[in-house]
Specification:
Blueprint lengths: L1 H15 L2 H23 L8 E4 L6 H7 L8 H9 L8 H8 L9 E5 L20 H9 L4 E6 L7 E2 L2 E5 L5 H8 L8 E6 L5 H11 L3 E9 L7 H15 L3 E7 L8 E6 L6 E6 L2 E6 L11
Parallel strand pairs: 2-3, 2-6, 3-5, 6-7
Antiparallel strand pairs: 1-8, 4-5, 7-9, 8-9, 10-11
């Protein structure tokens, strides 16, 4: 019945309301149906995500993610919902608030693949009422000193605004991904990389393999909308390849839906251990931490 009502209302709304008006109405509906109930309910109810670790070792990343109360809405939820991003509806935003805590005021480089096409002819289209670039504008607001970059296979939705620039990228084509990272603005990599493109295991792997080396020290890489049915494939690949190839990276699989695709793969590159240098004072020697060895998340 609900599906039939939507099918009936969609052409009526499309003829009479602009996409911006629809977006504003959706935001108000989300506030009433989701934000306020969660805000009240989070005071007495705590709901945690299931987080699976890899490698059989204790992970601080896993513990951080397990501590998040998904019921508790954050500023990230409001901002993303206001711009029309589905990250708030998918419950990603409470997790992002925890992952990026302490980073929001830093001059980072943020890269997100997948602008959210509203072209019905494209794969993974959001429909005619979709808001391409919604997440990028949300990141720009949340990170007031960051430079935000986006990429998509749909050339028709690429755009450039204050602190936002987008590029063409076909995530199934390795040459196209390497061309993205060869752009002048991205040659030094990024502190935050979010993959919200084509939601298939092959597409995820294609972009990750070519992009993970560009993640800065201390940076975070997230694959959104991971299907539960592909977990075993992820587990095999991470255990057999990535843990050996990237020994200083933490991997965590966040299960929000064990029947659908609203799950996350989160990767964090650990900062290098401080280098030690030895100085001599008379006949005594002591060890100091080199000033230039402190981990930094600011663009270099």
């Amino acid at each position: 019945m609900k599906k039939r009502i939507k099918q009936f209302l969609r052409p009526v709304i499309q003829r009479n309301l602009s996409p911006k008006t629809v977006q504003a109405l959706r935001f108000q509906l989300w506030l009433i149906s989701s934000y306020y109930p969660r805000l009240i309910g989070s005071r007495i109810v705590k709901r945690r995500a299931k987080v699976r670790a890899f490698g059989g070792t204790r992970s601080s990343l896993v513990e951080e993610l397990r501590a998040v109360n998904l019921m508790s809405p954050q500023e990230t939820c409001l901002v993303m919902a206001k711009w029309g991003s589905d990250k708030a509806r998918n419950e990603y935003t409470p997790l992002y608030s925890a992952l990026f805590r302490g980073r929001f005021d830093r001059p980072l480089r943020i890269v997100e693949l997948g602008l959210g096409t509203n072209n019905p002819e494209m794969l993974s289209s959001m429909g005619v009422f979709g808001a391409p670039g919604a997440s990028l504008r949300g990141w720009r607001q949340l990170f007031p000193h960051a430079l935000v970059y986006g990429a998509d296979v749909d050339r028709g939705i690429l755009f450039e605004e204050d602190r936002i620039k987008t590029f063409y990228c076909d995530q199934l084509n390795r040459s196209s991904i390497l061309e993205l990272w060869s752009q002048e603005e991205l040659r030094r990599g990024a502190e935050i990389i979010i993959e919200d493109g084509l939601h298939t295991f092959e597409a995820n792997i294609s972009f990750l393999d070519a992009s993970l080396p560009h993640l800065q020290l201390g940076g975070i890489y997230v694959v959104e909308d991971v299907g539960w049915d592909s977990f075993e494939q992820w587990n095999d690949r991470i255990e057999s390849i990535y843990l050996k190839q990237y020994p200083t990276y933490e991997f965590a699989f966040v299960v929000l839906s064990d029947r659908g695709y609203n799950n996350l793969l989160v990767i964090r590159r650990m900062p290098d251990k401080p280098k030690a240098k030895t100085t001599r004072e008379g006949s005594e020697s002591r060890t100091e931490v080199a000033d230039d060895a402190q981990p930094s998340l600011t663009p270099r």
